[in-house]
């Protein structure tokens, strides 16, 4: 009888423990509440490389592993927390170029200011007279889809002479490319230049150039692709392997696109209509199509990034006097809006928008638009307070 009582008592304790644990569990976030995660339909080999790239993306570089001697951050996640936007607390500064003649300050540390240094070295300081711009890092999700949009589609979206008279004349960034990149299928050449599409001014051709450049300029880590030390300018042995670079590129290519939320909310539906009515959708194009991609899960897919990947004149207020490649100082690539509603999660609960994080709300970001976006901004100002709330609610749903 005693043993039966003990067994019953033990069972009671276990049941109570399980109930208390269940009550203490935190529900896992929904897929549309996080940016991390692979796209659907990857092969087993692609999933393995995604995981390897994910690990490398969060790897912390040490001095023994090649960090520095001057640098900005010691891991990719420092600038892209949760694969999302950076913040002004980890901003970076580019300097040295004011027109298409090239960077005139490469011998003084350009194009990027490395404001940290390992022991025994001094961080860089901005040279006198150097044009510069501050940046915060963009989110990195859905990049494989952006990478796979065909050059022909981007050319078709451009309107350099404003032939339709809407005041908007987006253009591709025709730019020179490094020798180590491989051209996309059906790439278009113009006077020896190719269309680049990544970065605030669309200065990088592809994710390999973007990644190798980030290792080199952000962390001071050399690779087979970018072998020159940022401090001395001398060529050094690779401090990060080609396999790691390729894994990170594969990770970035196969991160899922941000998933919108609350799409059946009546205010969100109205806000989406207003977004088109006030001409925001002319540049922030809701839907694009990929062309062929070696990654079948990306190939010939429709997706919804809210960008045209083109350069636009954004007016004097956003002209920092600095540029990259052949973009003008007042030109900026249309940033994708997908994932906008999750930006606070990566930015410490606050919101920092525009290329340098100067806007602390979506409304403030809209009001900073000028140049080709002046009319859209004025259209927004003329909305009723209810309409503004509906439009902002739609943008928060992305």
| Number of DSSP E strands | 10
- Helix and strand pattern: HHEHEEEHHEEHHHEEEEHHHH
Mean of pLDDT:
93
Strand coverage percent: 5-15%
Helix and strand content put the structural class at: mainly alpha
Low-confidence stretches: 1-22
Give the biggest beta sheet.
2 strands, antiparallel
What is the terminal separation in angstroms?
Answer: 63 Å
Rg, rounded, reads 24 Å
Approximate helicity band? 25-40%
Name the strands of the widest sheet in spatial order: 1-3
Output the number of helix runs: 12
Q: What general outline do the C-alpha atoms trace?
A: globular
How many structural units, i.e. domains?
1
Written overview of the protein:
The longest helix has 23 residues, at 2-24. The strands form five sheets. The protein has a two-stranded antiparallel sheet. The protein has helices spanning 2-24, 44-58, 76-79, 143-147, 151-157, 207-219, 242-254, 266-277, 343-346, 362-367, 374-381, 385-397, and strands at residues 70-71, 92-95, 116-117, 132-135, 173-175, 194-196, 288-289, 302-303, 311-313, 331-333. It starts with a helix and ends with a helix. It is mainly alpha-helical. α8 packs across α12.
Brief account:
By secondary structure, this protein is mostly helical. It is built from twelve helices and ten strands.
What key attributes describe this structure?
398 residues, mainly alpha, two-stranded antiparallel sheet, two-stranded antiparallel ribbon, 10 strands
Write the layout of secondary structure elements.
Layout: H1 2-24, H2 44-58, E1 70-71, H3 76-79, E2 92-95, E3 116-117, E4 132-135, H4 143-147, H5 151-157, E5 173-175, E6 194-196, H6 207-219, H7 242-254, H8 266-277, E7 288-289, E8 302-303, E9 311-313, E10 331-333, H9 343-346, H10 362-367, H11 374-381, H12 385-397
Antiparallel strand pairs: 1-3, 2-4, 5-6, 7-8, 9-10
